[in-house]
Write a structure and sequence with these properties.
Layout: H1 4-28, H2 31-47, H3 57-77, H4 82-89, H5 98-117, H6 120-130, H7 136-143, H8 147-164
Domain RNA polymerase sigma factor 70 region 4 type: 109-161
Pfam family, one: Sigma70_r4_2
GO biological process, one term: DNA-templated transcription initiation
């Protein structure tokens, strides 16, 4: 059975739902996106085991919705366009060259080995972030650590895997973005 903190957080979300919808629609410029984000926010609030003790829970819920919207837009930006799909469908037969397939399989094995060399928590955080595409806030709550610590764990895991695969890590966010780390 879920606790009263959980019930209070769900009630607050439902009470503020219309206000959140208006604010999100204005902020995001799309009623459909606002509806989707609110739905996802509700699901996350409902899944919370022990909501954090907050001075401003309303602001927390709104920020959660904005973070979900940012994650959604980021994911949408990674989707392929129709022309990109067409280009991929035009791939020549040499892309399936047996030596390339074997090389790819060896690289996957090396990556798996590198992942299993990581400490268990770092490996789980990395998998949650990169394979499950879980937002950093959700990962931090799952592991009871700060989002900054989640970022450090991911960076350390990337560095380890890159070194094992003899590759450079390109930093995509923050100062020095685009430079090898």
């Amino acid at each position: 059975m879920k606790n009263t903190g959980h019930s209070a957080m769900v009630r607050l979300f439902l009470t503020s739902y219309d206000d959140f919808k208006v604010r999100l629609r204005r902020r995001l410029g799309s009623e459909d996106l606002a509806n989707d984000v609110l739905h996802e926010t509700y699901l996350r609030v409902d899944r919370m085991e022990e909501p954090p003790n907050l001075a401003q829970p309303n602001a927390y819920l709104y920020r959660m919705a904005l973070n979900i919207a940012a994650d959604r837009r980021e994911a949408d930006a990674r989707l392929l366009t129709g022309s990109e799909v067409e280009e991929l469908l035009q791939v020549s037969d040499e892309a399936l060259d047996p030596s390339r397939v074997v090389g790819g399989q060896k690289e996957i094995q090396s990556l798996l080995k590198a992942l299993y060399e990581l400490p268990a928590r770092r490996r789980k955080i990395f998998i949650a972030a990169r394979l499950e595409e879980a937002p950093h806030l959700e990962i931090s709550q799952r592991f009871g650590i700060s989002t900054r610590m989640v970022e450090k764990e991911i960076k350390a895991a990337l560095g380890h895997c890159a070194s094992r695969l003899e590759r450079k890590v390109i930093q995509r966010f923050g100062p020095g973005a685009g430079k090898p780390s």
